[in-house]
Amino acid sequence: MMTTATAHSNIALVKYWGKRDPALNLPAAGSLSLALGGLTTTTTVRRTTDDRDLLVLDGSRADPAATSRVSAFVDLVRAMASSDDRVAIETRNDFPTAAGLASSASGFAALALAATRAFGVQLDDDAISALARRGSGSAARSIPGGWAVMNAGQRDDGADAFATELAGPDHWDLRCVVMVTAAGEKRIGSTDGMNHTMRTSAFYSAWVDSVPLDLEEGRRAVLDRDFERLTTVAERSALRMHASALAADPGVLYWNGSTVELIHRVRDARRSGTPVFFTIDAGPHVKAFCPADAVDAVVDLADDSSVDVIVSGPGGGATLVSE
Ligand code: DP6
C-alpha cells in the first residue's frame, strides 16, 4: 500500500519555545502561525517487508539520525495499528531543507497523515495534529494549516495538545518574504535550543508567562485583520523568545550580522510608511510579513546579493494526494 500526502510549512507569529513534557512533546504554552502555501513537503509512505525503515529525502538516503527520528515517529503509528511492518518513505521539499525554514513542521505533518492512512489508522484532524506534534511541536499547526492556533492543553496524556484553524488561508492575504541570510543548516536545532533555554535561562519562566497574553492579542489581531496589532504582537513574541535563548547559559544566539541589519531595515521601512513586520525562528533568517501590495518594497529591503528571498502567501492544511 502506498500513500502520499502534502503539507505546508508554517511560521509562528506567537512562538512556541519550551515544553511542559519533553517525552510527549507537550508545549509549555500555546502558539499561533500561518501556513505558507509556497513551502510544501510531499511524502509517500509504502509498507514493506524489509527489516528496517528507509527514508529518502529529496532523492538521497537520509542520514541515520534523521532516519531514527522518523522511525521512532512511525513506531507510534505502528503501535496504533498493531503492526510490525517497516516503511519506505520518500519525502521532497520544494524549498531548502533545514535552512531554518521549518521543514520539520511540514515534514512531520505530511508524514503523520500519510503514515496513518498507510496503516489504516482512522484519526480525526485533531488527533492527527496531536500525533504530528510528537514528531515536532510546530508540525501540529501544519495539519489545519491557514491561521492556526496550537493549544497547550492540560491533560497529562497530551490528547488536548493539538492545533486548530483560527481562520482559513483566504481570510487575510498577507505575504511572507523569507530572507535567507545564510546557507546550510542552523548551528543549534530548535529542540536543543529550547531544551537548553528551559534548563538554564534566567528568563525562561518570564517568557512562558508572557505567551498567553500574546496569544490572545494575536488571535484578535488575525480575526480583525489588524495589521498594526499583529505587528506589535509578532515582533514582541519573536524578540522575547530570542531574549530567553540569549539569557541561557551559555547564551544561544541564532542571529548573524545580516539578521540584525534586516531587523533595522524592516523597522525603518515601517517608520517610512511601508506596512511590514519581522519574525525570526531558531536560525538567522528574517521572515517579513506584509500585505500583497507591499511585497516589492519589502523584497527590496533584502537587496544584498548574499540574501536569497522566497515570497509566499497563506496555505491550507495537510492533504491526502493519493492512497
Ligand atoms: C522557533 O517544532 O522544531 O520555530 O517540537 O522540538 O521539534 P520540536 O521543536 P520545533 O520548534 C519550533 C520553534 C520555532 C517557533 C515555532 O515554530 O513556534
Structure description:
The chain has eight helices and 14 strands. It has helices at about 65-80, 105-120, 125-135, 190-200, 205-225, 225-245, 255-270, 295-300, and strands spanning about 1-15, 20, 25, 30-50, 55, 60, 85-95, 145-150, 165, 175-180, 275-280, 285-290, 310, 320. The protein is globular. Ligand DP6 binds next to helix 4.
Instruction: Provide the succession of SSEs.
Output: EEEEEEHEHHEEEHHHHEEHEE
Nearest-angstrom radius of gyration? 19 Å
N/C terminus separation: 7 Å
Bound molecules: ligand DP6
Share of β-strand residues: 25-35%
User: What coarse outline follows from CA principal-axis ratios?
Assistant: globular
| Mean pLDDT over the full residue set | 95
Put simply, the count of helices is: 8
Can you give the helix content as a percent range? 25-40%
**Secondary structure tally: strands:** 14
pLDDT < 50 runs, ≥5 residues: none
Structural class: alpha+beta
**Biggest β-sheet description:** 8 strands, mixed
